Amino acid sequence: xxxxxxxxxxxxxxxxxxxxxxxxxxxxxxxxxxxxxxxxxxxxxxxxxxxxxxxxxxxxxxxxxxxxxxxxxxxxxxxxxxxxxxxxxxxxxxxxxxxxxxxxxxxxxxxxxxxxxxxxxxxxxxxxxxxxxxxxxxxxxxxxxxxxxxxxxxxxxxxxxxxxxxxxxxxxxxxxxxxxxxxxxxxxxxxxxxxxxxxxxxxxxxxxxxxxxxxxxxxxxxxxxxxxxxxxxxxxxxxxxxxxxxxxxxxxxxxxxxxxxxxxxxxxxxxxxxxxxxxxxxxxxxxxxxxxxxxxxxxxxxxxxxxxxxxxxxxxxxxxxxxxxxxxxxxxxxxxxxxxxxxx
Length: 344
Description:
Blueprint: E1 3-4, H1 5-12, E2 15-17, E3 23-24, E4 26-27, E5 37-40, E6 57-61, E7 73-77, H2 80-95, E8 100-101, E9 106-107, E10 112-113, E11 118-119, E12 124-125, E13 130-131, E14 136-137, E15 142-143, E16 148-149, E17 154-155, E18 160-161, E19 166-167, E20 172-173, E21 178-181, E22 186-189, E23 192-195, E24 201-204, E25 209-210, E26 215-217, E27 223-226, E28 231-232, E29 237-238, E30 243-244, E31 249-250, E32 255-256, E33 261-262, E34 267-268, E35 273-274, E36 279-280, E37 285-286, E38 291-292, E39 301-304, E40 307-309, H3 310-321, H4 323-343
Parallel strand pairs: 4-5, 5-6, 6-7, 8-11, 9-12, 10-13, 11-14, 12-15, 13-16, 14-17, 15-18, 16-19, 17-20, 18-21, 19-24, 20-25, 21-26, 24-27, 26-29, 27-30, 28-31, 29-32, 30-33, 31-34, 32-35, 33-36, 34-37, 35-38, 37-39
Antiparallel strand pairs: 1-3, 2-7, 22-23, 39-40
C-alpha cells in the first residue's frame, strides 16, 4: 500500500512542505529512514535527525522551527506523536484486515459466526459457540463449546478459550494465552490432595487486551472477571474468582491469587505478586517486584515485598542501606558500656 504526502496530510489534517507527490509504503524511525518510508519527530532529543534523514516524508509539529535545510518532505500537524499513532493504527488495521473461513478450520455443529469474520487454518470452533461480526481467529486457535465472542475481537495464533467463557467486543488476545483453564484448588487430606472441580467460567468485558502467554483461570463457582478496558502485558497469571476492575494496567510477569478483588484505574509494574482474598482499592499503584499481602488504600502507591507505602519504603530503605554502619555503632556503644561497667 502506498500513500502520497498530500494524502497523509489530508488524513491528519496537516499541511505539506516539499513534494506533495512524495510516496511512502513503509514506516520507519527517523534516525533510520530510507527511501519510501514515513517517519515522525516528536521527541526533541531526535531533532538532529530531521536534517539528514533519508525518510521520504516526516511528520512534525506545526510550530517546529527549522534551523537548517531538510532533504525530506514535511507534513506539519498539531500533534506529531498523536498523528503518527493514528497512522500506525491505520497501517495495523490494513495489515490485519483478514477475512474468510479456511477450509482447514473445524466448526462444530451449532456454532455460529457473524459477517466479515476470519477463521484461519486449523482453528477449532466448538459446539454452540457464538462469534460476532468482524472477529479474527488466527490459525491453531481453540474456541471451546458455548464460548461467546463479541464483535471486532481478535484472537491471535494459538489462543485457547475453554468452554463456557465469554469475551467481549473489541478485545485483543495474543498468542499462547489460555482463557478458562482450571483454578488451582485441592482439598488436602491424609491421602493427598483431592481436586476440587472448577465449574465456573471467565468473563472478559469489552476493549480488553491480553498479552502473550497469559493464563486466566476459570472460577470454582461463578466467574473470574476482567472488566472493561483492562490491559495486560505478557506472562500474567490470574487465578480463580479474581475480579480486575475497569482500566487497570498490569505489566509483565504478574500473579494474582484466588478471589482477590482489584479496583479500577490501578497500575501494576512488572513482576507484582498479590496474595488471595485481598481488596486492592481503586487507583492503587504498585512498583515492580512488589509483593502485596494486605488490602490497599485508594490512590496509594506501594513498593517492596512485603509491600508498604512508597514514602515509608524509601525512608526505610535508606536505613537499610546504612544497616552495617548502624550495627557497628551499636556494637561499639555496647562494648563501651560493658567496659564502663567493669571499671565502675
